[in-house]
Amino acid sequence: MARRFCIYYYFQENGAYLQQFVNSLPHSLIVATDTLANLPPQLNSEVDVVLLEYQENNPKLDRWIEKIASERQSPPIFLYLKEINTANLWKALRLGVKECLAFPIQEEEFKQALERIQPHTLTDEELVEPTRLISFLGCKGGVGTTFLTANLAYIMAHEHQKRLLVVDLDLRYGQLIYFFNARPQYNIINALENWERMDSSYLQSLLYLYGSNLYLLAAPSRPEESEAVTPNHLEKILRYLKNMRFFSMILVDTGQRVDEVIMKALEVSDKTILVTTSSIPALSNAKKLLELLPRLGLEEAGLELLVNAWQQKKDLDLPEIADFLGREVTYAVQHDPGEVDRSINEGKPLAETAPSNKVCHDLGVIAVKILGVPEAKDGFFSRLFNRLRGKG
Ligand SMILES: Nc1ncnc2c1ncn2[C@@H]1O[C@H](COP(=O)(O)OP(=O)(O)OP(=O)(O)O)[C@@H](O)[C@H]1O
Ligand SMILES: [Mg+2]
């Protein structure tokens, strides 16, 4: 496909030179050419590169360059200058320009500059199997939904080398970033703001990368911004992320409020894991949700149950919980407030702060089950679980 250029010039003869240069390149097409006096307020999304003759002492031009360059979906700007020196290089950098060129433009250098701006498109080998999307829904506040989502994602990304994305849909109070001590520049609101110009490289640029395999899409930074996210937006974003086939798995922290937006997330999910503890208030909520969600259209088959912070000696045992809820407990994670709190307060996954901890071990078992990879041998928790269910 031809690369599409826009050319803006100050002197007519320089405009002619730039046009002649671009026309001499293979697979290049000039889609617009005009003088600096006629710069458009917005750039057409059909443009790949803006080639612009720079005019000194023109603050209006500087403002235009800065504005266009700051719009993430705008094409890169290449400046054509009378001469290149340190002062104008610095200025160009500050304005957000991608390359500076001077007469005569060297074809080889120009081609290299074009290669540098090429967005990363996935090769067939890089594409993963269809991405699975799993939502974690808390049946009550504080049952550990965010802790579990964050830590399972970390284990899948680091121990199993899967490319993982965690999406924070606790839209009002999103806390996921604190579990990774992350300060992302962008969040889900940026995805909505530029929806018309959305593509996979833009979406990737909104994600925060933790380590080498784990990506985060943060919740809005202010509670009032959560209103901007509609079920329709969310469905589009989640489907887009899924269809990119960049991630093996997307884990979603849906918080604990079932509203229209969250229902949409659950609908798009391949599986929903309802998180509870073994306390009576949490279990009674879990029971209500297990009845409500299928009535709202969620397939029962896609619903699983996780009992968190479970204490073998003190709490109801797992078969009793299953009896009460009328549904098998799919996963359980033991209780260890000391280490769990320490990892949360340090903003690090538990597998980093206490890799041999029992909670970490249970999370490892769950990660294996969700990923569907064969378990090397039965761990403590699976043996215990089977014994309690009368299988061991
Ligand atoms: N397995 C566990 N053992 C002991 N404590 C735990 C465990 N999991 C979570 N916790 C405790 O629960 C607290 C709440 O965890 P988290 O923030 O993940 O819950 P949440 O359900 O996401 O809460 P919120 O409703 O605020 O979003 C943690 O600070 C931690 O103290
Ligand atoms: Mg939470």
Task: Describe this structure as you would to a colleague.
Helix content is 41%, strand content 18%. With 392 residues, it is an alpha/beta fold. It folds into 2 domains: 3-117, Rossmann fold; 132-388, P-loop containing nucleotide triphosphate hydrolases (Rossmann fold), CATH 3.40.50. The protein has an 8-stranded mixed sheet, sandwiched between helices. It has a 5-stranded parallel sheet with strand order 2-1-3-4-5, sandwiched between helices.
Mean pLDDT: 89
What's the Cα radius of gyration? Answer: 26 Å
Number of helices: 16
Major beta sheet summary = 8 strands, mixed
So, CATH architecture of the largest domain?
Answer: 3-Layer(aba) Sandwich
CATH superfamily (homologous) name of the largest domain: P-loop containing nucleotide triphosphate hydrolases
Distance between the termini: 62 Å
- What would you call the shape? elongated
Q: What is the CATH top level name of the largest domain? A: Alpha Beta
Assembly level? single chain
Order of helices and strands: EHEEHEHEHEHEHHHEEHEHEHEHEHHHH
